[in-house]
Amino acid sequence: MITSKDSDKSIALVRSAFRQYYFKHSKNIGIPTRMKEREFGYKQFSSGIVRHLSFRNIGELLAILIREAPSDIYCSNGFYRFPTYPMQEKQWGGADLIFDIDAKDLQLPCEQTHSYLLCMNCGVVSEKKIDSCPKCDFSKLNHISVPCNKCVFSLKKEVMKLINLLITDLGIKKNCIEVYFSGNNGFHLHILDNRFDTLDSRARADLVGYLMGIGMMVESIGVRKRSEGFLIKFPKSGLSYGWRKRIANKLGIDQLSIVKLNNIVQQKGGYDGFREELSRLTREGGVRIDPHVTTDIHRVFRMPGTLNSKSGLTKMRCDDLELFDPFINACLLGENEVNVEAKAHVNLKLKGQSFKIKKQTQRLPLYVAVYLICKGIAELS
Amino acid sequence: MKHVIDRAAERIETEITKGSVYERLDKYEIEILTFLVTLIIAKSIGIESILKKYSLFEAMRTEKYLTEDLRRERNNERKRLLLFKIFEDLFKMNVDLDSKDSNLFKVKVTDYLTRAPNFHEEEWKLINRLVHNGYVYLDADETVRLIRSELTSLIYSRVKTMTLSNLPDSIKAKVDDLRIKLQPHYEYRRYQPTHYPPCIKKALDVMNRGENLPHSARLMLATYMLAIGKSVEDIIILFHNAPDYNENITKYQVEHLAGNRGSHTKYSVPSCEKLRNENLCFATEECDGITNPIQFMSKLFKK
After folding, report:
1. Catalytic annotation on A169?
2. How many Å apart are CA A260 and CA A253, to the nearest integer?
3. A371 and A303: one domain?
4. Strands of A49-53's sheet, edge to edge?
5. Which domain, by its residues, includes A71?
6. Which of A285, A301, A335 marks a domain boundary?
7. Domain check: are A31 and A171 in the same one?
8. Residue A314, in any domain of the structure
9. Which of A33, A170, A239, A343 is 20 to 30 A (C-alpha) from A254?
10. Would you call A205 an interface residue with chain B, using a CB distance cutoff of 8 Å?
């Protein structure tokens, strides 16, 4: 991550690489539907976010991107009558349904093999777990992850799980689901189905609970509490679809398996024990999405085709998720070499080439240098 | 006609005093007339809270008989026609029968999500429903329950927009009689500004001086006024003095808070705790024990 502690030289290098990208790859930028009704915002290097902007066309936006070369560019999922007004006066007209799947929410076992801690005071990077900075004793340390192929594989699996639920349960057409690599360590899904546009935050929270597998009652699967234990009575509407079907399949029951379900509940310790088991099963079958992103109907969300300042990679559309390799397909910065000083040992693979970065000054292609500077692991020397 | 007027008065009295649905059912000609007379009486009594309660219980009565009709009707085409006339025509909600089981009704998942999250019971969470291919499958009473709040608003708004010329003496006498009976229950609801809680008085003071009131205070003021039964129009007038007053924006926002727009969710008055955190609380001794400004007046009048 780029912080105000980074040298002006490093920031200038990244900024110039970003400007070059917007100059060369403007066609990558995804033009949002109803563009005039969207709120735009951008972050500048080492300063805050500018919001409540509006652009009439992509040309106006590109002019800003090339002139300012911002660190990050956002566009609202919502559309408004007055997108530039303060939030309460914008007059919300609806918002696209969006999802964010981030590796940090997946708790992957590989994470600790490629994690670093960055001191927010002096910029020292530690490869070991520490509570405070070994150099200045500052305790505010930021976690940095240099994702690996295993992370990408697990993320893709989670995306597929979400797509499957959206199609089979919610009836969303496959061609209405756009998948993007987030530009760092996750994936974004944009749903182009206007039936969902007017759902408010509460409705989206209900949807999120459904997709994450939170809040299923044991009564939905046919287990009812009685003063002495429990009773099996299957719901009239059956177990043939959705979560009920998934859980019934996992338990190996159907609407006739009263005795079998009775035994399973007994085995799990009765009503309360089975409730815990059901909660575990639904969480396991649910998708780990960031609930805040989906329930926020006024969010400014990273724009497709723009660069992510946490890595220098592009938020890139994945037309074929299985074949998509973010370290190749989203790595689009220049290749001229620059001298950088790395603050830690890092192994990484970008544009199909492996790099074993040593803790010293070395000459590296621009896309690697920007990646390391954006992560906070290197400085321009 | 006397029979109809008596039934109408009895129906309103049951709904308001007992807080329950009036369950007697007569021939449909009598029912239609009775309903029309209840509308006239509810309007003429002229007490906002009575009208709201009447609208809710009339909606619940409709819900009860509609559920029974849907359960009893064996002819699927007639059942579909009933669904179409009520749900699609009135509330733009498409409901169809399940192809395998005609006792199950399917509603679009988005129609479900715009209504059910307002119910607090766990069983209404989407995860506890049968969901497939964009539809939620419900039985008759669950399907009808989805539209209770819209039915209530429909009845309420129809009464609100009615204009009555001279009432026949027979109805007028019933109205006077009912008003005398029911008014004591609602006397305290006819609020005077002097009865407002201190947070609301303070916000009104600032507004009357033409000074700028923060958004959170405006939200508190509008939700409070809606909760005590003020109309959207009356509330808009309150905001006239705001330095940045814009009638269209104010109208949009108050209608949104009143649940007349978007998801049709009516916003509640923020709790005392929330107001304290936002520095909008100016509690006095009279506030002791309340957790929401809306409880202030009932506490005052219980003394």
Report:
1. no
2. 7
3. yes
4. A49-53, A40-43, A72-76, A300-302
5. 8-107+146-210+290-380
6. A285
7. yes
8. yes
9. A170
10. yes
Please give the ipTM for the structure prediction. Answer: 0.92
pLDDT tens digits, A59-80: 999 999 999 999 999 999 999 9
| Chain B CB within 8 Å of residue A242 CB | yes
Q: For the segment A204-224, what is each residue's pLDDT rounded down to a tens digit?
A: 999 999 999 999 999 999 999
Q: Do A48 and A12 contact (CB within 8 A), yes or no?
A: no
Report the percent of chain A where pLDDT is more than 70. 98
**Chain B residues within an 8 Å CB radius of A214:** 127
Question: A97 and A54 in one domain?
Answer: yes
User: Token digits for B118?
Assistant: 């307002």
CA distance A172 to chain B (A): 7
Interchain contact, B116 vs A206, CB within 8 Å: yes
- Inside any domain, residue A317: yes
Mean pLDDT over B59-81 rounds to: 88
Residue A290 annotated as catalytic: yes
Boundary of a domain, candidates A269, A285, A301 = A285
Contact B128 A216 (CB under 8 A): yes
Averaged over B74-86, what is the pLDDT? 85
The verdict on a CB contact (< 8 Å) between B108 and A195 is yes
- Select which of A72, A100, A169, A319 is catalytic: A100
Distance between B104 CA and the closest CA of chain A, angstroms: 7
Tell me whether residue A352 is in a domain: yes
Q: Do B109 and A171 touch (CB under 8 A)?
A: yes
Q: Do A260 and A325 lie in a common domain?
A: no
Distance from CA of A180 to the nearest CA of B (A): 24
Say yes or no: A282 contacts chain B, CB-CB below 8 A: yes
Same domain, A351 and A338: yes
- Residue B131, H or E segment: strand B130-132
Q: Is A241 in the same domain as A343?
A: no
**Token pair recorded at residue A167:** 């199609």
Q: How far apart are the first and last CA of chain B?
A: 44
Q: What is the CATH number of the domain that holds A100?
A: 3.90.920.10
Q: Report the run of H or E that residue B97 belongs to, with start and end.
A: strand B95-97
| Statement to judge: residues A182 and A312 lie in one domain | yes
Of the candidates A150, A139, A159, which has an alpha carbon nearest to the alpha carbon of residue A107? A150
Q: Are residues A252 and A309 in the same domain?
A: no
pLDDT band at B192 (very low <50, low <70, confident <90, very high): low
pLDDT > 90 fraction of chain A, expressed in percent and rounded: 84
Residue-wise pLDDT tens digits, B88-142: 888 889 899 888 888 889 999 999 999 888 777 889 999 999 999 999 999 888 9
In a domain, A223, yes or no: yes
A215 and B128 within 8 Å at the Cβ level: the answer is yes
A344: buried, middle or exposed (CB in 10 Å: 19+, 13-18, 0-12)? buried
